Amino acid sequence: MTKRSFFFAGGGTGGHIYPAVAVAEKLIELEPRADIRFFCSPRPIDRKILDQAGIEYTALPAAGFFLAPRKLVKFCASLLRSYRIAKQIIAASDDPVVVGVGGFVAAPVCLAAQKLSVPIALLNVDVLPGRANKLIARWANQIFVQFQDTKEYLAKKHKGLVNVVGCPLRTGFDNPQPDKAIRQLGLDRAKKTLLITGASSGSVSINTTVCSLVDKLDAFAGDWQIVHLTGLANCDQVKRRYGGAKISHNVLGYFDDMSDLLTAVDLVIGRSGAVSVAEYAAAGVPSICMPYPHHKDRQQYLNAGKLVQAGAAVIVDDLPDAKDRADWLWEELEALMKDQEKLTKMEDACRTIAPKQASSAIAQALLRITRRAD
Q1: Residue-number span of the structural domain to which 203 is assigned
Q2: CA–CA gap between residue 374 and residue 363 (Å, rounded)
Q3: What is the pLDDT of residues 28-67, one digit of tens each?
Q4: CA distance 54 to 44
Q5: How does pLDDT run across 319-338, given as a tens digit for each residue?
Q6: Which of 31, 258, 356, 363 is the most buried (most CB within 10 A)?
Q7: Is residue 373 part of a domain?
Q8: Quick one: 333 and 203 in the same domain?
Q9: Angle at 170 between CA 232 and CA 137, to 5 degrees
């Protein structure tokens, strides 16, 4: 086999980067000579994840799409610059394949690949594809999705190209080490653990809602403890809100080994991005999903719905009114913290929908993709 280059295009959130990293790691395992590079956004979360993974990357000056005149001009200019940078790098590579993984960075890279007649694969882990992925799907040789619903949606225009493989997860989920997380965080093995997370960047809404419930959570201090991942920007503020709390708590801006942590906890409150719901299921942890409320297509509600249908989660709306949001969350949270039988049933339900070996299936398919004729 000749040496090949694989370019992953996307970023801006961990939900875009983590599945791509999982596939990249599997590619390196299957074909050590392969060259791997990411085209990512300039956001710090992209650099943090890729630096820790030891993967080379090029941050592109891409910007999100907005109709406001000034922002639209910025979008067009950044799209053109990103396209030119990506085209130059891809054209100079050996037998390239480009994998779009979502977000505003993916579109200019995949456009460059299309102009160069370079094979394109699309990885879409949300139930419904976003704007960029709908565009990329037109050029794709193969499309990999997490859900059967996504295949049915895309198959209308892309019949025969769509493969349901699940969500690629980081290698840690193949062999999680919950004891390692327990030791790292100094957790009490005699207590159950509640994890609060707003995903890789954190969630101000989830942070403030849970903080408003700390006095009520003190009633569970004898049996429960808390790990709260706040996002790097909000850690100090949240730590202050826990001041004087009786319930044992560990407040962190970020924790990288989520496979270890999720398998060490008994209940999670968090967002329901496509990767998050796949990780909850893989870890076998019951969840209270608070979907991000501002996506027009309500994609996080659809993702969480898959867990709810299986009996592995409940949904609490991220309501505009802070008191209404906190009251609803407390109603669900208190009931679950008191009901071990219910938690056990939800844990068992996770196993019925836990994702399989998506990373391996995608990596093997990418190695088989051939260059298109010019």
Answers
A1: 172-353
A2: 24
A3: 999 999 999 999 998 888 998 999 899 999 999 876 555 5
A4: 15
A5: 999 999 999 999 999 999 99
A6: 258
A7: no
A8: yes
A9: 95
